[in-house]
Each structure stands twice: as structure tokens, then as C-alpha cells.
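Shipment paperwork, digital attachment
Item: protein structure file
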Amino acid sequence: MKTIVALAGDGIGPEIMASGLEILKTISAIDQLEFTIEDKVFGGAAIDETGQALPADTLAACEKADAILLGAIGGPKWQTGSETPEKGLLALRKSLNLFANIRPITILDELVKFSPIKEEIVKGTDFVVVRELTGGIYFGEPRRLSPEEALDTNVYTRKEIERIIRQAFELAKTRRKKVTSVDKANVLATSKLWRSIAEEIATEYPEVTFENQLVDSVAMKIIQMPTAFDVIVTENLFGDILSDESSVLAGSIGVLPSASHSDNGPSLYEPIHGSAPDIAGENLANPLSMIYSITMMLKQSFGYFDSAEKIEQACDQVIAAGIYTPDLGGKYGTKEFTQEVINTLQSTEEK
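Attachment content:
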């Protein structure tokens, strides 16, 4: 019996979490998988209930889990307080040592028409952004803010850089064997160290093609020639920006998942989007990002590749049938879209 902690969070988080867990329940019945789901409060909802974005009880449950699912966190309601949902997320990542954030950017043929990029440029896009998640400017000290001056500190150690670079090369070995390391080595000391270490580690993987690129160049090329990339590895801030930019290629940020891994603890799986408070509770959210986060979990934490592929194939069939949520110009709500995927899974199994 595997234990999964579900952190629904804020905004559309509870809606898409409910959809994802319905899909998980369906595939569990079909393939006789056994999971225990523990719902825990997190983010803004936890601030409202306990005064803390990451309550001790929630962290303890996450530490003991086999995997963690996160819906979404944040919203205007909590942005002016001393305790914010984002602080809770950073604390969770740091506490669980979730240093490797994996964000696949795969554009299904059925979704190419929704991309703002020309079809001949975006079709066939399939790359992964590997983002270092527990170091860099988001965690560096000292930091301060006053009306006249602000300071953020960007710090990276050799160990932090080595482990994320190796993560990228190991991933590339299972794909098209190309790694692009992204930095700003013409300006930043942290990037100079990053580039030096990346070049060292590249020599350990002669079967993998390696290149260094500056972050501003990559930001342009992701739009100009996204199919040129396989695995992109970079530091925390650059990875945050580039992966969000990359999400535009798919036509909707609502279809892309992510995974965050530690050295030996539980992994966390979540959509790359925010909590979208403007549509929360209106049955408008696209649940695909949550569903695909669950298929990543099934593969990467549990090794249930066949079950994950059944879910992905069902989603493909539903999309191919022209069934979309409003973010893709469709008329189907969150619940209705989810039910279509469930119906497809069940009918496929009956055959």
C-alpha cells in the first residue's frame, strides 16, 4: 500500500486535485493498484486555518509519504501578510530537499493549433527543463528590503551544481542525448562557476551532446526553434522564467505538469501553473496539468508505466475528439472533461 499526501491548496487547486484523484481512483480499480490518500491543508488555506502556510502536521505527513501531489497555492488574499503561501512552498521544498524540478514541455499534435507559435515551428516540440530548486537567489542570505534599498543574495555551491547537472545528463541518456546548460557566465560569478562545473561533468558523459548557452539566447531560441532542445538544465531563477515561457508553446499553461525530486525522499508532483483565483470554483479549470502530474508520479515514483500510459492515451483520445476546456476554446467544464477521460478509460478496458 502506497501513501500519497494530497495538498489541494488554493484557488483552482481543490478542483483540479479532485479531478486528478478521480482519475487515479479509476485507474487503480482497472489495474488493481492500492493507494492511501491523505488530504492535508497547505498554502493560503492553511494560513486561514492554522496561521501557517506549512503546518507541522502537513510537513510530517509529507516526510512520511511515498509521493506528494500539489494542486496550486496563492492568491491576492494572502499577499500582504507576513505569512504567505509562497513561503510555505519554499519551506516545503527546502525541508524535503526537493532540489530537482523536472518540467516536460511536450506539444501534442492535437494541441499544435492552440499554440501562438506557427505550426511549422512548434510541431514536434519535446524537451525538458531541469531546474535547480533549492539554491540560488530564492534562498540566499542576506536579504533585505527598505523604501530606499533592496538586497537579494545569489549563492551556489559546487555540490548543488554538480547534482543538478548530473540529473540532467542522466535524464538525457534516456531521451535524445543532448544537454543544454543555461547560465549568464558573461556577467555573474555564480554562472561562471556553474559553467565550469557543467563542462567538467560533461566529460563523464561522452555519449551525450553538450552545449553552453546564455539565458537571453535560450529565451529567444525557445520561441524561434523549440525543437532544437532536448534537456535544458539551469539554476533556480532562470529555470522558473524559462519553464513558464516554454509553457506558452502549448497554447495553455493548464496542460503542463512537473515533478520535484530529492536524493532519497518523496517526490512532489504539481501543475506548473498558479491558483487562478479569478476562475476558482467556476468549473472552468483545465485538469490536464494535474492529470499529467499524476501520470508522472505513477512512472517516476512507483514504476507503473502501463497505468500511466493508459491515462495519457485516454487523454489523447478525448482531446482528439475535440473535447476541450475553456482555456483551449472549448465548452467542457473541469468535471465534464474529467468524466470524459474516465469514460474513455473504462470503455477501453471493457474492450
